[in-house]
Every structure is written in structure tokens, then in C-alpha cells.
Amino acid sequence: MLFSKHHIEFEKKYIFNSTNHTSWAIQNDLINICTSYVRDNIVSEVKKCGMFSISCDESRSHKEEQMSICIRYTNNLEVKERFLGFVDVSYRQNADALYSSIIDFLRFCNLSDIPIVGQSFDGANVMSGQKGGVQTKLKQIYPYAIYIHCMAHKLNLVIVDTCKYLKYLRKLFNGLEAIYVHFSYPSKNKKFNEIQNLLGLKKKSLVQLSETR
Predict the structure, then answer these.
(1) Sign of torsion, CA 12 17 23 26?
(2) Sheet of 146-149: strands edge to edge?
(3) How far is residue 78 from each of residues 36, 49, 55, measured CA to CA in Å?
(4) Residue 106: beta bridge partners?
(5) Where is the DUF4371 domain positioned along the sequence (predicted)?
(6) pLDDT tens digits for 14-64?
(7) For 200-205, what is the mean pLDDT?
């Protein structure tokens, strides 16, 4: 329907057709097409700039370990920050594996030949270590890639410590954690689900608190 509003030939061809193109496969294809289009535009701008900085962070999503890759560059003296994509790093999370994943992804995006002048990660040794960390490995091929400890991670550490220091916040989070622990027992969790069904609520489950952003 969206395409037919802006493309007359498409509308003529499919207006009386029962095909609705809403299957999961078609949706994924459309998303991939849009992704490629947006990424190609970003890469084109980066190549015009001639340099960029990179920021990566990994986190667990469901049963996968994913690393997000973002870049910063300038376009007509305007600083732009763009998300490039996720990389599956479930198999291994050591410095060599993460470094290889980043380089492979940059090659996939046709950005591996563009100089990296800045890199920002968390403070974990595997990423920021001066002896074998990802930042050190990147500097071997991008010598001007200055490493900066991610400000968002630093702020997160400050907030976590502050919450532990303030008594009322400590009680609040301890109470929330206690609720999670209580309903994590199979018998209690079963009753929790039964009550949701009884009230006609959409089934939801409690998740454990995390200090990560």
C-alpha cells in the first residue's frame, strides 16, 4: 500500500492482486534493502570526508552476544554519528576475535581503506588494554586512531557507584532484586503465570536488574 501511493506502475500491477507482501520473508527483504541503501549513503559521506572515528560496544541479546558498531565523521563541517550495524560475536569474545569482527565488518562496508582517527570503547581490558587490547590492535593498522574511554561508560560507572552510596536508592534496588529472586523459583513463577492468565493479561516475565546502561 505504501509503495502503491508513490508508484503508479506498482499500483496498476498489484491493485487487484491478492498478494499483500507482508510475509516475514518479504519484510526481511525490504528491511535489508533499506539497510543497504542507508548504509551506502553513510559510506559515501565517509569517503568524501576521508576519515572517521569508531565506537563499539558488545552486549548480550537473548542468547547471542552482539557488538554494535557506530562511526563519527564530518559532512560540511557538521559532525555526524551513525549506526552501521550489529555483528554477532557469540562464538568468541577475546581481543583477537573482536578485532577481526570489526575489521571484517569494515571491509564489508567498504570502509577498511579509510583512515580511522579515533576509537572509543569501554574500559574492559579486552577492548582498551594497551598490551593486546582491541584498541592496540587497531592502532597497528590505523596509527592515528586515538583511543578515548567512552564517556557513556564512565558516566554509567559514576551512577552505579552513586546508587550504592545513597541508602534509599540501595534499598530500592535491593527490593527490586528481591522481587526477581522470589519469582525466579519455579513454584512461585508458575503461580505468577497462572495469575496473569486468570486476569487475561499478556504473559510477561521478570528480568534481573543489570548495572549495564
Answers:
(1) negative
(2) 78-88, 64-75, 52-61, 116-121, 146-149
(3) 23, 11, 18
(4) none
(5) 19-130
(6) 665 666 667 878 888 888 899 989 999 999 999 999 999 999 988 876 678
(7) 88
Residues 6+ apart with CB under 8 A from 149: 120, 121, 122, 123, 128
Q: What is the pLDDT of residue 57?
A: 87
Residue 192: partners with Cβ closer than 8 Å, 6 or more residues away: 183, 206
Is the pLDDT at 157 greater than 80, yes or no? yes
Beta strands in the chain (DSSP E): 52-61, 64-75, 78-88, 116-121, 146-149
pLDDT at position 50:
94
Task: Tell me the helix, strand and coil percentages in the chain, rounded to 5.
Answer: 50, 20, 30
Rounded CA gap, 80 and 208, in Å? 35
Return the C-alpha cell found at 81.
554519528
Which residues touch 71 (CB under 8 Å, ≥6 apart)?
A: 42, 46, 52, 53, 54, 55, 81, 82, 84, 111
